[in-house]
Design a protein that fits this description.
5-stranded antiparallel sheet; 29 strands; 4-stranded antiparallel sheet; mainly beta
């Protein structure tokens, strides 16, 4: 990596954000915002003009993380069944998928092959979880599915489970599925009576803009008080054929990756449980062609082991040129609450004062030079990261407004668009 960069510190803590005179660089990402009561609006990032509006179900605003948008402006909503709402009737049905194909909206069955599963239930309890994804080129949809065939005793406790996963490519209507990846784990004895506590399953990651030529599969055991990560594979399409390669180490939480998965930024999570927030060391790591670079290390940076507050990277995105990584630093602390000692912590007034000073600026956006994690070209207190608008600018939310920051020159462009939170903004 090679780049010249200029160190600077920007602040978004003021009430007003200045409107910049800078013009929009070329090769901008496309920008959409999910807005009340139920619409997705695309904006021109040079003129701020509205390009298009798509009406969506009002429930989407409650679960923006389940909405996908690709570079062609196609949209897919696959609800997270684990998210609980006060009134389930106001949430989009978990057994359906909403698709905007670019021209019109469709409601698809999440499990169109449900009859096949019903037949399998005659011999064992069958449970499935299925996530749908857009393709980046807008020609296909994808399924990522775990299937659990569970044997239970007369008391209803799990005895054993046969777990398999498959990934299927379909047409744009969700039909004609073709399996492109799959694996069956050995039969696992459910030693505690709950299979998820001791038996492996699969997790999946794909880019924000949809599946292109790769995705990542993680083998992991959810556990009761802690998760065990076993292995990670990159599934890659080359010459029309899908193959997989095992990574040197298991990845806990993939945040971003470049084409073909050659560069990956991922997190090592705290692992706190049982009511405790700070029992481990949060890290954010950049892996590139065999090089392993730690971008963020909670204990080294904050020395906060005595108090039960975790400071961590909540989001990380690689710049389009691969030179920088933008990260969002957040914490588990809720304003107005007491900062208590950790499980084995000892009172340390200096440490506590330092933690409070650091918390005062969070959430914070930083831009790190990938080859030198100690070098930060941007530090933005009280801001949340949306992503890279182009190879020079990041887009952030501060004081309810969108602002683009040039990570080299410091030039700002403020968008006259009000947003509630960064998760409702989509850059593709």
């Amino acid at each position: 990596m090679r780049a010249k960069f200029w160190s600077m510190v920007c602040s978004l803590s003021g009430v007003a954000l200045s409107v910049s005179f800078a013009s929009a660089p070329e090769s901008e990402m496309r920008l959409w915002v999910l807005q009340e009561p139920g619409q997705v609006v695309e904006y021109d990032t040079s003129t701020w003009a509205v390009i298009n509006r798509v009406k969506v179900p009002v429930e989407f605003i409650k679960d923006p993380g389940s909405l996908q948008i690709n570079r062609n402006g196609q949209m897919l909503f696959c609800a997270d069944p684990q998210i609980q709402f006060g009134n389930p009737e106001q949430h989009f049905p978990a057994d359906k998928v909403w698709l905007w194909n670019g021209q019109s909206a469709e409601i698809l069955d999440r499990f169109p092959d449900e009859k096949e599963t019903a037949a399998a239930r005659k011999n064992a309890a069958v449970e499935r979880s299925r996530w749908w994804a857009l393709s980046s080129d807008g020609r296909h949809l994808y399924w990522f599915e775990d299937e659990f065939r569970i044997v239970r005793n007369v008391d209803g406790a799990d005895v054993s489970v046969s777990t398999s996963y498959r990934v299927c490519e379909t047409d744009l209507n969700g039909g004609q599925p073709t399996q492109i990846a799959g694996f069956s784990f050995p039969i696992c004895q459910c030693e505690t009576g709950a299979c998820s506590e001791t038996c492996p399953e699969a997790g999946f990651w794909f880019p924000d803009h949809g599946v292109d030529d790769f995705f990542i599969v993680n083998h992991w055991i959810p556990g009761q008080i802690g998760t065990t990560y076993q292995s990670s594979l990159v599934c890659q399409r080359t010459g029309g054929k899908w193959t997989s390669r095992k990574l040197p180490q298991a990845l806990q939480d993939v945040q971003d990756a470049t084409r073909e998965g050659t560069t990956i930024v991922h997190r090592i999570l705290d692992g706190g449980c049982c009511g405790w927030e700070n029992e481990g060391n949060d890290q954010t790591i950049l892996d590139h062609n065999g090089n392993h670079t730690i971008l963020f290390d909670e204990h080294r940076r904050y020395a906060s082991v005595n108090y039960d507050v975790s400071l961590f990277t909540s989001k990380a995105r690689i710049s389009p040129d691969g030179l920088f990584v933008a990260i969002n630093i957040s914490s588990t602390w809720l304003p107005g609450t007491e900062i208590r000692l950790s499980d084995e912590g000892k009172p340390n007034p200096n440490e506590l004062a330092r933690i409070r000073r650091n918390l005062a600026g969070l959430p914070t956006v930083e831009v790190i030079l990938g080859e030198d994690p100690s070098s930060r070209s941007v530090v933005l207190p009280h801001a949340t990261l949306v992503g890279w608008l182009n190879q020079r600018e990041i887009l952030v939310v501060g004081n309810g407004a969108l602002e683009a920051i040039d990570v080299r020159s410091g030039a700002r462009r403020t968008f006259p668009i009000r947003v509630a939170k960064e998760s409702t903004v989509f850059l593709r």
